[in-house]
């Protein structure tokens, strides 16, 4: 098997293109269907690494502190990120609980740690096992990281409950909001082609 | 950008689904069990059994869509009275109380998006199976949109999760998740898998006949 590395095929319509040199900040689209083929980012690896490290700190804050508190008359119900998941599980909605756990906690954590696992060694010129396989797993899991959808869910819930009781935001809520932006920025600045090109077939 | 006006498949090249490395297949064309040398993903010219798999998932999603909308998604017990809500009655509640933006957001995320995904994927597969060559660029764009919007349907599941966590004060006020939550979650997951199993390159594989039809 020979790799035709200077050619690229569109992943959406399979048309072959000659891979041009693309300056950072520029992108290339398929001439037939318009799919985004490559987008070069400035200092992609460094920026993503910095954002992922910041994101990891925020992730732990978001999981360790109270998220939202619900105050009705004299009673206060304090919740963390995992409370709702545990409650769904107790109400016998096991699959839904697992799905929420995966999309709001597990996959975002895999994305953050995966980025660090891949980018830190690349930056320091070290070799780590299964680097490309790890990156493939991260790319596959990407649509399942749903922190921003969860944030919209929080806003809707707050509006829904506002008339019924008092909602008190906690430290974790602010950390989570910041996490959404860092995670989105880290994903957006990471240019997959640059990571794939680190692969050396003769190794 | 320069193109050769030829597809990878015609040149006996395989584009790795996962890392987009172009690999040359043997002359015999048999690639059963091959994996990408770079990322380890299985190599195929096209996603395997794409149309059959996507149809199966789309039909399953359409079936689950019915109980997801008919059954109750939340039950609120407050000061002794019990009130069950479906997805649609939740939207109507927001309209009645004048919270239009929230009503529109939930309506789009929970009702329009899953239905649009089911309809768009069905439309794309019917046109592929009929070998249509019309407006291929637009159909590819439709697929791109379907792939991008799917995750936002999870909104209602997350709202239920948060309500269940917060409103947990015994007889004073308690929210319980209803059976529709499980069906609705299934619709979201299945349509996401359906979009992933669909191969947009099939849109471009149809041969143009001389009369341009």
Describe the structure in your own words.
The complex is a heterodimer of chains A (203) and B (213). Chain A is built from seven helices and seven strands; from the N terminus they run ββββαββααααβαα. With 203 residues, chain A is of the alpha+beta class. Chain A folds into two domains: 1-40, no CATH class; 43-196, no CATH class. Chain B has two domains: 1-45, no CATH class; 49-205, Butyryl-CoA Dehydrogenase, subunit A, domain 3 (Up-down Bundle). In chain B, 52% of the residues lie in helices and 12% in strands. Chain B has seven helices and six strands. Chain B has helices spanning 50-70, 87-96, 100-129, 136-149, 155-166, 179-197, 201-205, and strands at residues 3-7, 13-15, 22-24, 74-78, 81-85, 173-177. In chain B, α3 crosses α6 (179-197). The mean pLDDT of chain B is 86. The chains are: A alpha+beta (203), B alpha+beta (213). At the A-B interface, β1, β2, β5, β6 and α2 of A face β1, β3, α3, α4 and α5 of B. β2 (15-18) of chain A pairs antiparallel with β1 (3-7) of chain B.
- Which architecture of the largest domain in chain B would the CATH scheme give at its second level? Up-down Bundle
The chain-level mean pLDDT of chain A equals 86
Any idea of the CATH class of the largest domain in chain B? Answer: Mainly Alpha
**Structural class determined from secondary elements of chain A:** alpha+beta
Q: Residue ranges of chain B: pLDDT <50 for 5 or more in a row?
A: none
Global morphology of chain A: elongated
DSSP, total strands of chain B: 6
> What's the total number of strands of chain A?
7
Q: State the distance separating the first and last CA atoms of chain B.
A: 28 Å
The helix fraction of chain B, in percent, is: 40-55%
Give short descriptive properties of this protein.
A: 203 residues, 7 helices, 54% helix, B: 213 residues, alpha+beta, Butyryl-CoA Dehydrogenase, subunit A, domain 3, 2 domains, 6 strands, 52% helix, 12% strand, elongated
